[in-house]
Backbone:
């Protein structure tokens, strides 16, 4: 993903800096003896840290459409993680700097600054907020291995406690509180919306109409809307929550899946590969099961140079956004320029969408299709790309597949002198 700044980034920067600008006159200067500048650094770190914590929560609101201000939900989650981790580091700097600032007076003074009598509620609220942050963030450190996704999501509620405590700490200490109330409302309001309101009012009810078996461990669900169909663009994704009591796992859990149907199709088609408990259970979901859909999210085909032809490379289940794109071309009968899709699979049995994609290519001049089997030819290389799509280096490029494939392709394409800004990739993992 190229790190192009988006409008949303600018908004975030302003909102992070604003509380600091408001507080600056009260903080004094940066110069002077160590105790003065360390106090200044400590306070600045605390203000920025809390603003980032609240904004990390605010951007997790997941209102369909708003993610595009930040370049799609996948990029927004990365921003969310970055804000959360940076906030944690700043909070550590805040504590350390304020403690060190008191050391020149005496060690006792330093200890008393950090651990004052219990009557000094503001400081203890700060410590409790820090503790909640540690409990919440600890599972994400590599040391503890990969966190279990659903448990990690439930643990996010502890982050709401950290926010409330941190906000209390700031409100008791800050001279100017209106801005903190506003940021607090944005952060805590986003969590309340996500956890309590949105599941009840913002999900579209669908029912499973058919379950089409594509290959071993891969099905395509055809979903029929119970009300007005959700509008979406090719390549976008949704959160899917199945409600069937008989499912062996994942009932009531939301998981992200790409929409593989054309936007003009009133049915949603979603290709699902068995990659764990919930996706395994969906392989045998019964027709007529109720499914809640939240979205759409992302901007997979957010094209930056619409005049360029496109190169699409999809591997494994990462073919789904391209199936959606190809079905869209088949429905509309046109493309904005020429498209060449490379479908990377291990072997013919694993190229489950091949026949349909070949049919679309046969009927549409502007859509070309090439199949690549890694068991026969090894990894995709420059010679294969050039043989089938001689001008591939001139195109706008979209890549979606397993992380190892994405990494290999980025290296291969960069080696051809293609700038990163022209390569758009998606990995099916938010962690
Ligand atoms: C934008 C996006 C689009 C996707 N599109 C498709 C698709 O079209 N077809 C398809 O088969 N798969 C798709 N996936 C992957 C799919 O979401 C995971 O395979 C599924 O959530 C795994 O859940 P599980 O319980 O079966 O497995 P688990 O064993 O619980 O999880 C396997 C891995 O999937 C990830 N994961 C699990 N739950 C979630 C979640 N709620 N949110 C984000 N990541 C999660 C975790 O990194 C985990 O390591 C997509 C993922 C993303 C992020």
Residues:
């Amino acid at each position: 993903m190229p790190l192009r700044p988006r409008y949303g980034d600018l908004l975030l920067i302003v909102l992070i800096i604003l509380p600091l600008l408001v507080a600056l006159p009260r903080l004094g200067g940066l110069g002077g003896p160590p105790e003065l500048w360390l106090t200044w650094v400590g306070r600045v770190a605390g203000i920025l840290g809390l603003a980032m914590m609240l904004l990390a929560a605010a951007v997790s609101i997941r209102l369909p459409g708003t993610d595009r201000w930040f370049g799609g939900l996948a990029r927004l989650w990365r921003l969310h993680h970055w804000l959360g981790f940076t906030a944690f580091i700043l909070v550590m700097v805040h504590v350390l700097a304020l403690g060190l600032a008191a050391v020149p007076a005496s060690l006792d003074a330093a200890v008393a600054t950090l651990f004052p009598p219990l009557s000094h509620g503001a400081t203890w609220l700060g410590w409790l907020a820090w503790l909640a942050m540690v409990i919440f963030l600890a599972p994400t450190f590599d040391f503890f291995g990969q966190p279990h996704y659903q448990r990690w999501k439930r643990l996010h509620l502890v982050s709401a406690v950290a926010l409330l405590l941190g906000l209390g700490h700031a409100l008791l200490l800050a001279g100017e509180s209106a801005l903190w109330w506003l940021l607090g409302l944005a952060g805590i309001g986003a969590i309340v919306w996500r956890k309590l309101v949105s599941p009840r009012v913002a999900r579209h009810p669908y029912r499973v109409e058919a379950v089409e078996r594509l290959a071993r461990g891969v099905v395509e669900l055809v979903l029929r809307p119970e009300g007005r169909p959700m509008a979406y663009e090719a390549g976008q994704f949704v959160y899917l929550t199945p409600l069937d009591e008989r499912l062996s796992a994942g009932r009531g859990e939301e998981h992200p899946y790409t929409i593989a149907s054309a936007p003009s199709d009133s049915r949603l088609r979603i290709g699902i590969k068995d990659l764990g408990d919930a996706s395994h259970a969906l392989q045998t979901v019964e027709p007529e099961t109720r499914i809640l859909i939240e979205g759409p999210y992302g901007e997979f085909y957010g094209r930056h140079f619409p005049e360029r032809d496109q190169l699409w490379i999809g591997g494994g289940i990462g073919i789904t956004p391209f199936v959606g794109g190809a079905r869209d071309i088949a429905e509309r009968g046109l493309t904005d320029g020429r498209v060449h899709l490379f479908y990377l699979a291990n072997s013919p049995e694993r190229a489950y969408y091949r026949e349909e994609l070949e049919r679309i290519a046969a009927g549409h001049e502007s859509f070309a299709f090439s199949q690549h089997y890694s068991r026969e030819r090894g990894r995709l290389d420059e010679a294969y790309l050039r043989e089938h799509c001689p001008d591939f280096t001139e195109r706008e490029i979209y890549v979606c597949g397993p992380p190892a494939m994405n990494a290999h392709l980025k290296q291969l394409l960069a080696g051809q002198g293609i700038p990163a800004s022209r390569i758009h990739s998606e990995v099916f993992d938010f962690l």
Remarks:
- The chain has 13 helices and eleven strands.
